[in-house]
Amino acid sequence: MLLKGSCQCEKVKYEVETNFYYPYMICYCSICRKTNGAPFGVNIKGKLCDLKITKGDSYIKTFNANGSERCFCMTCGSPLYITNNKWPEDVWPNAASIDTPLPEPPEYQQIFIDDQIKWYQPDLPGKKFNTYPDWSIDEFHQHWDLLP
Ligand SMILES: [Zn+2]
Ligand SMILES: [Zn+2]
Fold first, then answer.
1. pTM of whole model > 0.85?
2. Which fold has domain 2-142?
3. pLDDT in tens, 70-114
4. In terms of Cα–Cα distance, which of 57, 55, 54, 85 is closest to 69?
5. pLDDT grade, residue 16 (50/70/90)?
6. H/E element, 54
7. How far is ligand 1, taken at its centre, from the CA of residue 55, in Å?
């Protein structure tokens, strides 16, 4: 599916063609919370070669947190996507920056649950982990037969 994303001020627009777009992984780690300014972050996955910045390339700034380059709009601060030197072929778009409607996942996986804030603890079906989950994003999509 071709996903279209943008920042809040719309200086930056991007597209990514990917089959790994179910927004099931709810991350409560402090980096996701702080860089999203939200109780959690949700990233999906694509290939870096399938990412196209369609507008405002020069407005994108990156912040390295724990080995990941977190890319955001320098004007409005919206988080856009993440890259990582350890997996140089991949990109993790921030699901909340995607304007294309994303499907509801069959279950959620809540990760870094120990870092969850007390004032927002949603009741979601699915597994909880204190660290990264057992499955990769690819394996989750394969397990639930979500690939075309
Ligand atoms: Zn912006
Ligand atoms: Zn996180």
1. yes
2. 2.170.150
3. 999 999 999 999 999 999 999 999 999 999 999 999 999 999 999
4. 85
5. very high
6. strand 51-55
7. 11
Among all bound ligands, the one having the nearest atom to the CA of 35 is 2
Ligand having the closest approach to the CA of 5: 1
DSSP label at residue 104: P
In the structure encoding, which two tokens stand for residue 81, read together?
Answer: 């996507």
The sign of the CA dihedral 70, 72, 78, 83 is negative
- Measured in Å, residue 8 CA sits from the centre of ligand 1 at 5
Give tens-digit pLDDT for 31-54.
999 999 999 999 999 999 999 999
H helices present in 58-107, as ranges? none
User: 47 and 89 in contact (C-beta within 8 Å)?
Assistant: yes
**Distance from Cα 28 to the centre of ligand 2, integer Å:** 6
CA of 139 from ligand 1 middle (Å) equals: 33
- Closest by Cα among 62, 66, 26 to 44: 26
